[in-house]
Model the fold of this input.
Amino acid sequence: MKLTTPLGEEIKKLKAGDSILLSGTVYTARDEAHIKMKEKGIPFPPVGAVIYHCGPVIKDGKVIAAGPTTSARMNSLSGFLIDAGVRAFIGKGGMSGEFLTQIKGRAIYLAYTGGCAALAAARMKCTGVHYSDLGMAEAVWEIILDDLPLVVAIDSEGNDLFYDVGEKAKSQFLERWSTKKADETGN
Amino acid sequence: MTENKNVSPDLIEKIQALTLEAIEEAMIVLPDDVKNSIREASIREFSPVGRGELKNILENIRMAESLRVPLCQDTGIPVIYLTLPDTVPFSQSIIDAIYRAVREATSSVPLRPNLVDPISRVNSGDNTGDNMPPVHVKPGNKLSITVLPKGAGSENVSRIGMLLPSDKNNITRFVVETMLIAGSRPCPPVILGVGIGGTFDTAPALAKEALLMPISSMTLFELEICDAVNALGIGPMGLGGTITALAVKVRTAGCHTASLPVAVNIQCWASRRASREVRL
Done:
């Protein structure tokens, strides 16, 4: 499915596991940018906006590499963005804790393939920067996406692919490798 | 910088130039065995979401090659493996030539400056400093330089265990548990380098050396561990699926009768390595 920012009610139809192609403007933000935006204000129209957890390498206004960073670091930093109208977060590895309650009925989490910096750069155009005093990796970059392939990892109802996969892996491990079983097989 | 009169300036220059070449190739082009393995995985993967992730990875590999840019923004720490023939004495001047190549590559490829002081966290800015990157030297028939850039995401979830000798049947369990704890963090599908035996320091070194081996074939033992890891269902990028590990490679060394060190060095899908031979 193809989606274009700003996002609206259509995100509520998306289910965990759906693949989408996202186009339009997104804003990069890591730890420092979240703290700055909370203090000094969000420097872009937040309604329907999309945040990308990414510290890009930008050279002469061009995106050189822009893979996702680990989103879990922003678990407790994202509430004010959702309250302001941000509809989606793109990153790597999923999110948990209070974030899951905050996005219910309001926003979704999109996973972008870790390490795919060259592919990302090929589908991105940099159009501006906010809070550049934070440095290249931490600044809020305005980037236009052209069909970036993403997976809905957490939908607006709270269905969470990462959580489900983690729980299944845990029970599979316990079933096969519990101490009792190891003893029985002579291990 | 110390000069050793036994190593000619001409040879030092060649070592520097070929190290630079190896770093550049490693950052941009994945080895054929790794590319083939990911391609096969994209066909074998059962989960549509997992297949989508592998498709993105394959597209990323193609883009990096055609744009001549690094595959991943984490260009890692370039771990260097050197073999020296009897005719070339090992000297500081060789290490210095390698460090110069790393500094040059940092600005020419470019590489992300990743190297910091462990306590002050001040970045050296050029990926060298305080005995880094590591240079491992072994005798060999040829003068060869191999570069293995190692990213932090997968390095951070690597693990060593000092198992009991009676645990020898639980080596597989330890490797699988390491991957269970790692989950999505090392950017699966991964390659697991497993070092078994030696002393406390040997096992992780063996585990990393195991990552230098081609993944086009596995022993029965390696295959058994690989299947057990894949049974976890973590899948590409931790989004679920049949392919969590592309391969497992094992290296062993003798060990104390009372010890069983086992180390697992996790490597993300971007299993980068490149070698150059320096003609004498």
Summary: Chain B has eight helices and eight strands. Chain B touches chain A through 46 residues (CB under 8 Å).
